[in-house]
Each structure stands twice: as C-alpha cells, then as structure tokens.
Amino acid sequence: MSGAKRMGRTGVFGAAACVVAVTVTGCGGLSDVPLPGGADVGSDPIRLSIQFDDVLDLVPQSSVKVDGVPVGRVESISVASDFGWTADVGIVLDSSVDLPANALASVEQSSLLGEKFVQLTPPEDEPPTGRLADGDVIPLDRTRHATELEPVLGALSLLLNGGGVGQLAPIVNELSTAFDGREGTTRSLIEQAETLITGLEQQRDDITRALDGLDELTVRVAEQNDKIAAVLDELPVATEVLEQQRPQLTQLLGQLDRLGTAGVDVLDQSKEDLIADLLALRPTLQALAASGDDLVEALSFVPTVPFPDGVEKVALGNSVNLFLLVDLQIGDALAALGVGQGDPVYRQPKFGNPKPLVDPSNPYYDGNGPAPGWPTVSLLPVLPTPRLPGVTLPEGVSLPDGIEIPGVTEAGTDTDTGTGTGTGTDTDGDEAPPPGPLEGLLNQLGLGGGQ
Questions:
Q1: Residue 319 phi, psi (nearest 5)
Q2: What is the pLDDT of residues 381-409, one digit of tens each?
Q3: Closest CA to 73 of 116, 105, 106, 118
Q4: Helix (H, G, I), strand (E, B) or coil at 65
Q5: pTM of model > 0.85
Q6: E strand segments, 94-251
Q7: Closest CA to 372 of 337, 340, 346, 341
Q8: By C-alpha distance, which of 67, 82, 75 is closest to 120?
Q9: Taking the domains of the chain in order of start, what are their residue ranges?
C-alpha cells in the first residue's frame, strides 16, 4: 500500500510540473504573464511605441495610467535602433482611451519606494491635435522620466560624508558678520537689484536688437578691414603734416582771436547805427507784411509772362509762337530809370485821403534823409562827354560857369568870336545844322543835343 501511495503522489507532482512547464513555455517567461488585477484592455486594444532616454527600472507588465487610472500595460521594453541611446517601450491600451496625437508620456513612481508606471497626459503648452491610433509613436521630445530618490540620496551622502560641509561654516559666518546691522541696506540692495532685473526684462527686445545691430556692425567692420588698415597706415603721415603746419595753425588761431575782438569792437561801436537801420527797415517790412495777400496773388501772374493765362487753349500741338518787341534805346532806358526827368512833383490824388509826402514814422525824416524837393539823381554814372564838333546847345540851355567843352557852343553864340547874335546862324549866315541823333540823350543828361 505504501508503495502505491508513493507512486500516486509522484504522478500528481509530475503532472503539476508538466502543467507549469507548458504554461511557462507558452508565455515565453514569467515577465509575460499578466499580473492579476491589471487594467482590462478589451478584445481590440491598440498598441503604441514610446521612446525614452531612460526608463529607470520600468519592467514589462507595469501599468499605463491616464489621470491616475490604469488604462493599459507595458508590453515590451527594448533598445531602439539609434546606436543604443534610446529605449523603445511598447504599450497596450484600451481602444476607448481618448488621447490627442501630441500626448506626452512620462515614467512616474507610485510612491517614494513604489513601483514605476507610464503616465499619459495631454499637452500643456499647445492645443491638442488629432487622436492616438494603433501603431503611433510618441517621440523622444515628448517624453520624460521622474527624478529618483536614489541619486538624490547619493549626492546628499557625498556632500555630507566627503563634501564641503566643513567649508560652508566659515562662509556662513562671514556672511552673518557682513550683514549684521545692515539689514536695511541689504534689503534695499536686493530691491534695487530686483528693479534692475525687471527693467532689463522689460527691455529684453531692445537689448536683443542692440546686440543684433552690434553683430551686424562687427560684420561690416570685418568686411572693411583692408580699408581700415589703409586709413590707419595713412594716419601717421597726416599727423606729421599737422605737426609741420602747427605754427601756421597757431598763427591762424591767433588771427581769428584778433578778428573776433575787432568784430566785437565794431559791433559795439555801430550798435546804435545798426539798431537805427533796423528801425528804418520796420516800415518797409510792415508794408511788405501788409501786402502779403496781394503779393501772393501777384505771384500767380508771374508765369503769364510772356505767355498769358489760358495760352494752352489756343496752342496747337506742343509749340507756341512768341513775338516780342524789345526797346533797346539808351534814352528810353535812362528815362525809365528817372534820368533827366526833373524834380519830383507831388500830385494830390483826385479821390481818397491824400497821404503825406514823407512817412513820419521814418527815422530819417526831418533832416536825416531824403526830403521833398531834392533833385533827381541819376542812377547811372555820367560818362565823360567826348569832343563833338559842331554841337550847339538848344535855347535856354547853357554850360555851367567855368566849364568849357571843346566843340560845344551855346545857342546864338558865334563859333568864331564866341559872341552870340541871337539868330542861331553861323558867320556865313547859314542856318544851324539839324539836331544830331544823340541830342535827346544829351538833353536827358543835362548836356544838350548833339550831332
């Protein structure tokens, strides 16, 4: 009996071992066996691939969560085909999970010493687009991993055991000594630093533009290195020339100083006369200002000389015939300038209130300037009268006392004896010669006619 029992027990254990072996062989390993209590991915799940630069100690069958709720599991972890610097994590999700195509993935930790899992979240800095579908890949730039406690504790251990804790004590003591009793100054310094940093932050765009402009200027200067070098090479020559001409420059500056002194003296001495001249110009300028409207209207007639307004209506094509009559007679020109016209005579206007001959507001009035009754002065210098034989002055015109012009005789004077007979004839009894072509001009100049 005992042998039969032993054989029965051996058969049971063998059958159990075969079942376990078959199960393990069918799953491929213990890591492929789904954990009890995991997320239900349904009958038609979707598979995604996530790239991480570090998966920490994430293992297959770890949970995949959305907002802390399990929605899938990690199916595989492998090395990506980028020379071994990226981990490729395959996950399985329930097809009902609604996540945008630009979703983010991270390796998180359930507690301080808990297990790792994959967290899927919508993007925070950009609007969600699309939807995750079967076969999509979440790239490396949209993944991250949480900071583990082990590296933090390791760094803290290095600092406390063999680090610089002992060196921190004198630094803290010196800072305490420096700030002792100066809390207000320190606070003011910190506030000013904050104001400075805030101002710099507000002017960040201007600073960026200034740096860009400086960069462009540097590039242009670098492109003109040859020209700048040539200018620098010529500077010593120019400096030497200035050194040679230093005495002349010094003398010039001294002369300019003397000229300035003389100019100041002249202005001081002629100040009253200058003021009087400016006051004399005041009526003229006032009259010019008063006629400003008329002057503007008169300017519109300037383009009508020599062509009148409306000439474009009678012009044929692009040309216009012009007929001018120009009077070039010297006598008429001098008459237009007032030569030989006699003293000015005041004529009272027929209509309106008569105006005074001289404006009383003129500072040159009452003996200081031109007054009524002065003779008209020629605007052109009188040329020397050439010897004109046979010139006889008209009746009532005589040469000034003490002035004799060869070849010019007065009317009624005998050309041989110098005594006039009053008949206007010569000694032979002939009539006086006809007036010459310059007689009118000489009359205007006060010299009588001529032949």
A1: -140, 150
A2: 444 545 445 556 666 666 666 566 655 67
A3: 118
A4: strand
A5: no
A6: 104-109, 116-121, 137-138, 143-145
A7: 346
A8: 67
A9: 1-33, 38-150, 201-267, 270-314+321-325+342-375, 377-451
